[in-house]
Amino acid sequence: MQNHKPYYTRDDISDLPHLSSLPGEAPFVRGPFESMYRQKPWTIRQYTGFASAEESNAAFKRCLAEGGQGLSVAFDLATHLGFDSDHPAAQADVGRTGVAIDSVEDMKRLFAGIDLSQVSVSMTMNGAVLPIMATFIVAAEESGVPRQQLRGTIQNDILKEFMVRNTYIFEPEPSIRISTDVVEYLSQELPNFNSMSISGYHFQEAGAEPALELALTLANARAYLDQIADRGIDLDAFCHRLSFFFGVGMNFFDEIAKLRAARLLWSEEVERRGATSDRAKRMKMHCQTSGWSLTAQEPQNNLIRTTIEAMAAVFGGTQSLHTNAYDEALSLPTDHSARLARNTQLILQHETGICDVADPWGGSYMMEALTQAMVNKVRGYVDDIDAQGGVIAAIESGWVRDRIHESAAQTQAATDSGRRPIIGVNRFVSDEELQSSTRQIDAESLIGEQRHRLQQLRERRDDEAVDHALAALSASARQQQGNLLALTVDAIRARATLGECTRALLLSWPRYRALSRFSPNAYAESRRHDASWRRAQRRVETFSLNNLRNPSILIVKLGLDGHDRGARVVAAALANAGFRVELSPLFSTPQQVLQQLHKTGFDAIGISLLSGAHLALVQELKTALDREGYADLPLFLGGVIPKEDQTRLEAIGIQHVFGPGTPMERIVESILARVALNATE
Ligand code: SCA
Ligand code: 5AD
């Protein structure tokens, strides 16, 4: 998979222009700072958030007490999509993948007892960036911290939401206005706050290989720079508040090369646009080890994978790092697994001497050659995007989603065929079941609590002031005037909720709906000659000959979970095996699933869920199916499902749960066997 030479020599680096630069010097291949980790090691910043503001606050404090150096907030999906916790569409997802925030009161409880003038806070928020940034600003204001002292980062990278992450609310055009309003407001009001964290991580999680990840990140960054320049913001004064975010997977050498190449390409880009200061040209980045590389089988192996990935991030010169917990292929981290994940970084910082030397790989024949190869490959992708008219055109044409989907499907095919070894999954598999406990979220009492708090907020506030502020927000959207973040801060200060601020904008800008698609050839190209895949295909063929039709399956994404890499790869594999496959739109309700069933019958339904909301959502769908006469329709489930939930899911009516790492032939054969049973009855 990694295309490396057996060894490298002086000839491989003889004409590389970047070789003579030092750490802290343009083009910053060797790191953004001269002293690097000797002066300040990277920030240990663990992504954390679940259930209520209080529970997450306790986790933040534990995190800081145990050696964490910055905070990084994970919000739940309801918050991401602009729903208050009492909204009917959000019920199954409240508090599951992050903390539920409805108002400034929740935000104040989230940071109670934490000094925001001292700790920098990153917030992964894109779709609902206006109300979340506003609640943070007002919470700090009311706790007495001046805006100038607030340090942190808001992700505010909406383009990649349309490409992969899927937590958008509005269509691309208004969404870009929102993100640029946020940049403009923060550049004036919160000079120490990074107003965008332009993300490659999510491309990697969705399946992109490192060069594609970097190319898409830079393409998005260029689109943002165009917007920022249009507002007349001076790049020299501002660029250092654009931050980057990359995933680091198991391609050890290439990942280091990617981070070095990223700095070089960014420095060139900013310089090309006329900026001259080093501060503007030096790229700063956060990294996260790869969630996709973690396995549900023998989860403790993930500690080892994460350590290796963390080392690549540090050798690459990251400024901030999240190390995944070993149980993340099963559920959110427990206190114990979160502690081990953090200790991975503490051990690297304190026990290894890694912080003593800046860019220890500098000058290596191999690393310098790989860095240049990465630069060249990325430039090639960026040229492809430019040739299509830029990144927005490439999103609209489906080019981006198709490239990532192909890359994901090829990786899955390489894993299933064994060409890409994964210990405990396709090599050296162990039968031993290692039980590890998982974090449980008591969503029912959380929703009750949030409902109660929302009621209290609405009773105590001045409704007229709220209506007035929300009307100003709607007007600004309609008339294309004013700064949306400034107006949202006013509304939030008057105690408008996150859902209300979102609704005020939805009056002018409808909710965006995307189509999900897959390509049947993406998976199987490289498996044509694999015996086990051919066998699965033959079984489907036999079914089709016997029944004079192909078996069929509807793959559905339920609730607010937008992670669709798995659903699309499974759809591609099943289609290639000979199934007739349809993929439901993201965020489908049971009602929409029934409509699809009424329109075209299916032999089975495959549900994909990574949000932890499986028990409630599967039950809801099953009840609807039974009511409408589909009680016999076999249901399958794939995703991040803790072992202890499997019996309950079977009792609801799930035939089989497929965890991460299940080979496609096993999925095909087990669905086919069940469908065949129905067909002969
Ligand atoms: C640092 N400094 C130095 C130095 N090292 N100065 C001189 N010499 C050195 N060696 C300075 C910096 O310039 C900066 O000052 C200050 O010290 C703080 O250091 P820093 O390097 O900027 O570190 P930090 O404050 O931690 O900021 C890191 C970064 C920021 C810039 C990358 O954006 C960040 O924290 N990002 C985190 C993003 C995040 O957590 N994302 C989670 C996504 P100045 O500021 O004055 O320059 S999780 C996700 O999305 C995945 C899951 C999902 O939901 O999909
Ligand atoms: N807390 C901790 N880690 C999380 N992740 C996602 N949500 C949370 C959370 N609330 C991590 C997982 C996942 C990646 C996207 O981020 O590792 O794979």
Structure description:
Strand 1, helix 1 and strand 2 form a beta-alpha-beta unit. 49% of the residues lie in helices and 9% in strands. The radius of gyration is 25 Å and the shape is globular. It has 681 residues and is an alpha/beta fold. The strands form 2 sheets. It has a 9-stranded parallel β-sheet. It is built from 27 helices and 14 strands. It binds succinyl-coenzyme A and 5'-deoxyadenosine. 5'-deoxyadenosine binds next to strand 1.
Strand order of the largest sheet: 5-4-3-2-1-9-8-7-6
Please indicate the percent range of residues in DSSP E strands (runs of 2 or more): 5-15%
* Helix count, DSSP H or I runs of 4 or more residues: 27
**Structural class category:** alpha/beta
Ligand roster:
succinyl-coenzyme A, 5'-deoxyadenosine
Number of strands: 14
End-to-end CA span: 46 Å
The average pLDDT value, as a whole number, equals 95
Largest sheet: 9 strands, parallel
Percent range for helical residues?
A: 40-55%
Calculate Rg over CA atoms.
25 Å
What's the overall geometry?
A: globular
Low-confidence stretches: none
Topology, element by element:
Elements: E1 43-48, H1 53-65, E2 70-73, H2 77-80, H3 104-110, E3 121-123, H4 129-142, E4 152-154, H5 159-165, H6 172-189, E5 193-194, E6 196-199, H7 201-206, H8 210-230, H9 235-238, E7 242-248, H10 252-272, H11 278-281, E8 285-289, H12 301-315, E9 320-322, H13 335-351, H14 365-387, H15 391-396, H16 399-417, H17 443-460, H18 463-479, H19 484-493, H20 498-506, H21 521-524, H22 531-547, E10 552-557, H23 565-577, E11 580-583, H24 590-599, E12 604-609, H25 614-627, E13 635-639, H26 646-652, E14 654-658, H27 664-680
Parallel strand pairs: 1-2, 1-9, 2-3, 3-4, 4-5, 6-7, 7-8, 8-9, 10-11, 10-12, 12-13, 13-14
Helix pairs in contact: 1-3, 3-4, 4-19, 8-10, 8-14, 10-12, 10-14, 12-13, 16-23, 18-19, 18-20, 22-27, 23-27, 24-25
5'-deoxyadenosine binds at residues 47-50, 74, 97-98, 205, 291, 324, 328, 332-333.
